[in-house]
Design brief:
The protein is an alpha/beta fold. It folds into two domains: 232 residues, Alpha-Beta Complex (Spore Coat Polysaccharide Biosynthesis Protein SpsA, Chain A), CATH 3.90.550.10; 98 residues. The protein is built from twelve helices and nine strands. Strands 1, 2, 3, 4, 5, 6, 7, 8 and 9 form a nine-stranded mixed beta sheet that branches. The termini are far apart.
């Protein structure tokens, strides 16, 4: 009987052929070897499908799942359904990992008995390299025979040794930090985290929507008993034009508000004493959307701007004097700037 891997890495792929070599290479160079990589080809129409099959041929730990195009949430859900590991991690196919991503996050999770282990991340260009990590030449072996862990030999990699200590907090503390937009929460993104697979027993990403992380991560934090938070940047989020996040205002952008409304309903049903934090979550989503509308031209998008201003006004009024306790200093300053100096507000949000 084949023993199940400890970790399942889920990699949704859709028409990202030019990024796949670096993404896949970063998986196979992990210093922690007990994993499976589940690559979900979400109906790609470029050369991505062939690259995924080549990836699987090169290493027995890789499985490819094919499906018709259903979007990122659908692909992630398919990966979760197929996962055999005790832990789950997500990797977007245009991004890549530090060689010690799995090693350090798994170590943090075990040491703290944490349900979620989180690391820092860097926003980089496709050419970015983690400090202290050298890449093999273009013709170097892509896989490690027998799934063994890579070494310094042969120019394969020379991983720097992050020296930070992970902070360990209760799930409730992490939940409140996340909803209130604190920088030490790990953020709403799914991909800089390692999760116990059991957290997904009744949680899936919402299909047919964008900003799916904002609708999911807070629920996983709520379910967690403990969360470890490591500041080391072990994940590279690759900035590229045309992505959902970097593409600016679109007809789908108003979906940012949906996660806020859903968080309000979730908290009201499960922990109403924390409702102010959900109001803050809804407020921050609206503030981010307002910055996008201002970039695109608030006069052109007057109807959307009016809706978003209404959410900001209502949630801010609901929080009222409790803002200082719940809303971060940064977001309180941004709220003030939105009223007195919209141009500066827009500029600061653009620099995020």
């Amino acid at each position: 009987m084949i023993e199940a891997p400890l970790i399942s890495i889920i990699i949704p792929v859709y028409n990202t052929e030019q990024f796949l070599e670096k993404c896949f290479e970063s998986v196979l160079r992990q210093t922690f070897a007990d994993f499976e990589a589940i690559v979900v080809d979400d109906g790609s129409t470029d050369g991505s499908a062939a690259a995924c099959e080549d990836f699987a041929r090169r290493d027995g730990r890789v499985r490819v799942v094919r499906q018709e195009n259903g979007g990122l949430s659908c692909a992630r859900n398919a990966g979760v359904d197929a996962a055999a590991g005790e832990y789950i991690a997500f990797l977007d196919s245009d991004d890549f990992l530090h060689p010690r991503f799995l090693e350090l996050l798994y170590g943090d999770a075990v040491a703290a008995d944490a349900d979620i282990a989180v690391c820092g991340y860097v926003r980089g260009e496709p050419e970015y390299e983690f400090p202290g990590v050298s890449r093999a030449g273009a013709n170097a072996p892509f896989a490690h025979e027998g799934g063994s862990r890579p070494t310094d030999g042969g120019g394969c990699l020379t991983p720097a040794a992050p020296a930070s200590t992970a902070e360990v907090v209760t799930g409730e503390t992490a939940f409140k930090r996340l909803l209130s937009g604190r920088s030490n929460s790990g953020g709403v993104v799914s991909w800089n985290k390692l999760y116990k697979a059991e957290l997904f027993r009744d949680v899936r990403f919402p299909e047919g929507r964008v900003f799916e992380d904002a609708a999911t991560t807070y629920i996983l934090y709520y379910k967690a008993g403990r969360v470890s938070l490591r500041p080391d940047e072990l994940y590279c989020y690759v900035r590229r034009p045309g992505s959902i996040v970097s593409g600016g205002l679109s007809p789908l952008s108003m979906q940012r508000l949906d996660a806020g409304r859903e968080a309000l309903a979730f908290v009201a049903a499960h922990c109403p004493e924390l409702l102010d934090y959900a109001r803050c979550y809804s407020l921050i989503a609206a503030m981010r959307l307002m910055a996008e509308i201002m970039d695109a031209g608030a006069r052109i998008h007057a109807e959307e701007a009016a809706v978003v201003r209404g959410v900001i006004r209502d949630q801010s009024k609901s929080l009222d004097r409790r803002k200082r306790r719940v809303v971060s200093t940064r977001h309180r300053v941004l709220l003030l700037l939105l009223r007195v100096c919209p141009a500066l507000y827009r500029r600061l949000y653009r620099r995020r």
